[in-house]
Structure to design on (1062 residues):
């Protein structure tokens, strides 16, 4: 069963190894565990619903509780403390586009706020109801997860919007296909959510971001149904797909999604290369991206992340041997782990591997083979579970991300790390910070930073610390040429920072679109656009 | 000097070879040449301007004449007959964003219509002034063609919007870079025009369409300046770049363009392969695209185009030997020419060529080496000049295009060809029609059809024939799952067909954006959106 107050399935438990705990204690001090609220305690707090009965809507307290918060660290603290804040007044489970339209009509008639809910994995406050005079209806798409049809010639699959990662892949793999979209949240997040929030997957280098995968579909809005046909490309005016991508539930409810799929590749392998230092690593990965070497994944950990990963990896003896070997070959203190994947035919993969190895060798890279690559594949969706292990040990962990042009990557990365590392300095509290680049482009790269801090003595203190850190980093990002999000979206948490990059006129254009599709402003008010 | 009544530079003359004339005469009857008007005759028809004087605006009759029409066949007939229709009241030549803003303010104050003019190469009526109570100011960007800066790390170049193809490439190549964007109109069309009309180049398979190349920039609108920063990717809400791409001068005047450039490749080669028949050719090219073989260009002529190209190629003796060789290897009547390019390092190109040859051999392809590939490179921008040669011989030629998913390519292509081939059947007039696929994607392909017909005995008859053919094909395209344009844009000529693919709600969204950026509706009214 899915956890009501954390990530993923209850049966998956990821603990922090004891040497990992010692590593963190040395860096930022011993952990400070806070007590969790129980489900019963929270259920007792769910207020009476303000909704009248509707056959498609559940007013059940536990359903409302389970759709009240996402997965940001603020959500985590709310769930763990039991102080959930606002609950939706009801949760609807439509099974068709017609039922979505029926629910929207009802919302209009009953004067409701409507929040679209996919997998509830937002880390930016997309699905959290806010206090409002109007009752809030959360609209879960979980019963609309079926593969509807496949066009085998055009490699287009049509899905319901509620299909989560495993549902998408299992239905496609049974017919020899893959979508190849693997965000970290893949186990729970959904196709409709990926489209609405401009999601990016770990193998976007081969398969593309959701912008490239999304071919068309249907959206139910308060102004009618928008149907976007699939074309391989078009010059017929602005692309309506791109209006929907990133609209975050403000324009309508996605009721059908067409995606570009691929035949399953003959072969896929992942490799790790250790680069002697950050500057060489950065130059090497940039060159790989700009030389269009056809890799399927490319990820570079900075020295801090490399050290942390090796320390938390388990098997300290094996790691010690690896480090000895690397040191002999020139990758010592300050080394950076670069992971890459090749996916395709054996011929293609052979050619790609050869090019990548030769190029990285020119930047001092030490090739370590497939073992760590295999580890990466095994653990690719495990990271969100680690929040539990860290929490039990008395540490809070969060991640944030941006993207910028190559000429600014190093500078922005450093500023973001410093803003976090020094963020609790006034309290004399240390923060452990490390970073990787996980999505590289010819023009630049994403920057993905993890930070670990101690929650302090109370939930209030923990939340205040997080808010201070989050604001410092967000402010640093937009003031220094980064986008406020490369992959997590805007939601409520990033909305105050959006105008810096969109400009006044751009924000007004988005508001004009929101007013066009949702004249009474019922859809997720405050998400994406502050008003 | 640029021709005032046709394509390109006056010194470039492409004539129809005599055996080509015989080929066409047999297919659709002997040519019917019509007399051309002279420049003096047309200049005498330019009416007095309704504009008051402005230091940045020319009221000169020849300048107004030279900015009155684009390059559609309707434009051609207007220019050749001397019946230009409406002339702009003046042409402005701003040299900076500040001057563009000054001109927009003046237009507002003087109650003018404003039309942005890049290279004047539209084949869909984008830049043609319409009869209006308000004077029309055409705003040419030709003095804003400079390279402003290059970010060598991020491979981003910033240009003025008026840089045409040769200006873009010469300024980049001097520093070791290329944009790699080569639409057929490359000699005259401009960067700003490419962005505004969602242009696609012949090597988009490697470099991407303009959507992928356009990284950001500035637009001067009646509601203020929109500045779009460059990010490699972003999940921060809908992408404002995508609003601008395809907006066709309805939202504002582009004053600066940032593009993603590439280092010049080590090596580039083009090859021709003859496929035994259309079905094998179609299956082969689809498989090449879906297998992600890293080619830089891929183009497939159907049997009709292959036959026509070989007939019009010149060197009939060489062609006869080629056909004998191909027949021995299995490519006889009905054969289809496939051209592909590889661009990159020697290693990459070797690997790509090997994969492409092996794959196409599996579909019966006969590899003919690089000779015809070299011919293609030599002649890649020559086709628009051929309209002159055909016209002198008494034939009118036009092209039109669409894109659709692979499952629909063959069917739609046939329907479009039939709509043209039978389009003048009531008059007992034959039309010669042939097609190629020039932009292929995993999902589907563009379809680019050329049709040659006789103009009849008068310009009125020629225009009526063209209108009948254009309408029949456009109607066929949108009624059968094609986009009204893959690369030429919407303009005025395609605007009546746009609602079929955008839907009522989508059209209203585009109108809401137009009203947002241009509240008094001064910018190119009737272009893209019929109102």
């Amino acid at each position: 069963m899915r956890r009501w107050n954390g990530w993923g399935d209850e049966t998956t438990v990821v603990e922090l190894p004891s040497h990992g705990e010692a590593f963190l204690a040395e860096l930022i001090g011993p952990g400070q565990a806070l007590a969790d609220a129980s489900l019963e305690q929270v259920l007792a707090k769910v207020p009476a619903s303000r909704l009248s009965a509707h056959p498609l809507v559940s007013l059940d307290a536990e359903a409302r509780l389970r759709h009240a918060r996402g997965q940001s660290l603020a959500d985590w603290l709310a769930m763990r403390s039991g102080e959930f804040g606002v609950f939706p007044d009801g949760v609807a489970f439509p099974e068709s586009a017609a039922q979505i339209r029926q629910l929207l009509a009802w919302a209009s008639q009953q004067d409701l706020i409507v929040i679209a809910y996919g997998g509830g994995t937002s880390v930016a406050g997309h699905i959290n109801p806010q206090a409002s005079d109007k009752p809030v209806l959360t609209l879960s798409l979980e019963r609309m997860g079926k593969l509807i049809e496949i066009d085998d010639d055009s490699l287009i699959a049509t899905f319901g919007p509620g299909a989560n990662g495993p549902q998408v892949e299992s239905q496609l793999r049974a017919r020899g296909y893959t979508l190849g979209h693997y965000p970290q949240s893949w186990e729970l997040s959904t196709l409709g959510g990926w489209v609405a929030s401009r999601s990016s997957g770990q193998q976007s280098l081969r398969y593309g971001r959701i912008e490239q995968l999304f071919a068309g579909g249907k959206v139910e809005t308060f102004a009618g149904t928008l149907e976007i046909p699939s074309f391989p490309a078009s010059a017929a005016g602005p692309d309506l797909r791109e209006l929907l991508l990133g609209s975050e539930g403000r324009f309508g409810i996605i009721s059908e999604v067409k995606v570009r799929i691929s035949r399953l590749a003959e072969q896929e392998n992942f490799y790790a290369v250790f680069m002697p230092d950050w500057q060489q690593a950065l130059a090497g990965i940039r060159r790989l991206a700009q030389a269009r070497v056809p890799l399927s994944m490319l990820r570079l950990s900075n020295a801090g992340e490399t050290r942390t990963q090796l320390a938390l990896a388990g098997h300290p003896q094996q790691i010690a041997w690896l480090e000895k070997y690397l040191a002999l070959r020139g990758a010592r203190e300050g080394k950076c782990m670069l992971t890459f994947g090749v996916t395709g035919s054996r011929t293609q993969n052979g050619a790609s591997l050869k090019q990548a190895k030769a190029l990285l060798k020119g930047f001092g890279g030490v090739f370590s083979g497939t073992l760590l690559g295999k580890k990466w594949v095994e653990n690719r969706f495990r990271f969100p579970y680690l929040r539990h292990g860290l929490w039990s040990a008395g540490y809070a962990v969060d991640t944030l991300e941006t993207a910028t042009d190559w000429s600014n990557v190093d500078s922005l990365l450093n500023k973001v790390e410093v803003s976090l590392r020094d963020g609790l300095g006034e309290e004399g509290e240390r923060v452990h910070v490390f970073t990787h680049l996980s999505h590289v482009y010819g023009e630049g790269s994403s920057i993905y930073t993890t930070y670990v801090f101690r929650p302090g003595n109370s939930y209030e203190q923990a939340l205040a610390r997080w808010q201070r850190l989050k604001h410092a980093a967000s402010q640093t990002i937009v003031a220094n040429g980064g986008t406020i999000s490369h992959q997590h979206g805007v939601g409520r948490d990033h909305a105050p920072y959006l105008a810096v990059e969109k400009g006044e006129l751009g924000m007004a254009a988005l508001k004009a679109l929101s007013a066009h599709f949702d004249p009474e402003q019922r859809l997720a008010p405050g998400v994406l656009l502050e008003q």
User: Anything to note?
Assistant: The CA atoms of residues 126 and 491 of chain B lie 4 Å apart.
